[in-house]
Amino acid sequence: MAGLTGPGIIPEKVVNYMLYADGSRSLTALVDVDLPDIQFMSETISGAGIAGEIDSTTLGHIQAMTMGLNFRTLIDQNYNMLEQRAYSLEIKAGLQSSDQNQGKLVTGKYRIMVKGYPKGFSQGKLSVGKPTDSKQEFSVNYLKVEYDGEEVLEVDKTNMIFKVKGTDYLTDIRAAMGM
To answer: What is the pTM of this model?
Structure first.
């Protein structure tokens, strides 16, 4: 399998994907997924020696993250994840790139693992001959992203882990806290 990046490789699109909830394939009418945004916590600082204000980010600390699942229409399976408990959600996707050197299309793997709690559920609307446009939202406490089997991001809020491409930026903070 060719990788997603390299000389002459042009990343193009998601070919298709599958959602797994607590290890089982989701049978819902899933249309698309709103992936969690990474926004660092920050504080505006000012004082002697600073010409104005600085928006100072906090090392490895992320604002609240959410993930949204958007459905074409509702089926009984959509109500399975309303129980107020943690769920493990995993998305496995095939990504298409164009290898300009070889003159062919290549496939890469994209995997997102999330742990979180149901935050909201919009049943959508009923309209004759139309989809319901329903949505379920989860608060995210854990996020891991892999490209072609390589871990590129891990955010584990309760265990104070913030890893980017193998470097954990909270190692020194955990040590300072006696963890």
So the answer is: 0.90
